[in-house]
Design goal:
The protein has 5 helices and 7 strands, in the order βαβαβββαβαβα. With about 140 residues, the protein is an alpha/beta fold. The protein has a single domain, classed as 3-Layer(aba) Sandwich (Rossmann fold), CATH 3.40.50. The strands form 2 sheets. Strands 2-1-3-6-7 form a 5-stranded parallel sheet. A two-stranded antiparallel sheet has the order 4-5. The protein starts with a strand and ends in a 15-residue tail after the last helix.
Length: about 140
C-alpha cells in the first residue's frame, strides 16, 4: 500500500509510520509532508502513485481542508487530529475515517480494516444494480 502522510508534528508522523509498518510491513510511505503548500504540489504531480492519504487537519500554514480547494483528491483520506470539531468537514471530502490523537494502534488497524471493507463492497459488488464496477479512482 502506497501512503502519503501529511502531518506537521514530527513525533506524530513517526508514530503513524511505525504503526502503519506494524500493521503491514509492505506499506510504502511515499512522503511525509508538513504543509498545505508542499501537499498541493505533491498531490498535483504524484497522486496517481498513492493508495491512501493520512492527513492532519491543523498544519503549519493553515487547515488541511484548503488542500481540497486547490487540488482534486481522488484517493481515500484518513484524518488524524487532536480536534473533534472538524469531523463533519472531514466526511464532506474524501474522508473515510477520523482518528483522534493520540492515535492508538488498534484504532489505526480498525480504520485500515474499515477501508478494506469499503473497497471490497464498492469494487466487488455491482453498483445499484448496474453491472459495471466502480474504478479504483472513484474511492
Amino acid at each position: 500500500m502506497n501512503v502519503l502522510i501529511i502531518e506537521d508534528e514530527t513525533p506524530a508522523a513517526e508514530k503513524l509510520e511505525r504503526y502503519l509498518l506494524k500493521h503491514d510491513a509492505a506499506t510504502d510511505i511515499k512522503a511525509c509532508l508538513t504543509s498545505i503548500h508542499d501537499s498541493v504540489i505533491y498531490l498535483k504531480d504524484k497522486q496517481h502513485e498513492l493508495d491512501l492519504i493520512f492527513m492532519d487537519i491543523q498544519l503549519s500554514d493553515g487547515l488541511s481542508f484548503e488542500i481540497f480547494s486547490q487540488v482534486s483528491i481522488k484517493k481515500p483520506v484518513i484524518f488524524t487530529t487532536a480536534f473533534d470539531e472538524y469531523a463533519i468537514d472531514a466526511f464532506k471530502v474524501n474522508g473515510v475515517d477520523y482518528l483522534l490523537k493520540p492515535i492508538r494502534f488498534t484504532d489505526l488497524s480498525n480504520s485500515l480494516k474499515k477501508l478494506d471493507v469499503l473497497r471490497e463492497q464498492l469494487l466487488g459488488k455491482p453498483n445499484l444494480g448496474n453491472e459495471s464496477k466502480l474504478p479504483e479512482e472513484a474511492l
